[in-house]
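Let's practice the habit of predicting before peeking. Look at the sequence and jot down your guess about where helices and strands might fall. Then scroll down.
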Amino acid sequence: MMSTESASQNIAQQAEQRLAAIAARRRVADRELEREIYKAATIKGLSQRQISDLVGNQSQATIQRILRRVSDDPSQLDVKPAEIIDQRTAGLITTEQMMDQLMNWRYTFGGVVRIGGVATDAYMTGDWDAIEMAFYRGQLSDDEFQQLADRQRDAPLP
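Done guessing? Here is the structure:
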């Protein structure tokens, strides 16, 4: 028989897992929506107002900001490690699918921004930062993180 304390812990753990999955699904959906907004505007030629009306919960001004941000840096539409991890957390892909993609990723690393050789107080993130954050948030297990770290350590230099 399960004690009241362990039952409460189990309920709390289940609530945390459900909350993490819902938040991950929302982040994945937001990224997919941004991709579709960009395609609708650039490939299909829809106006910002038309897109806003179709989406329903984004103003024309928000659509404009999304399009400007993505136009400035189209790589923002690329799937990145954080999204792959969110897909697994959300239950959209399996652990095996996630690990296969992450084990074969060519990671970038963050660093301090330098201007004219002088370090600034700004930090430019890299793909590996998302791996570390996912581990700290509990989205990657110790074993998964270790496999990725070992793979990265043994990866050939670019």
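How did you do? Residues 56 and 91 are 26 Å apart (CA to CA).
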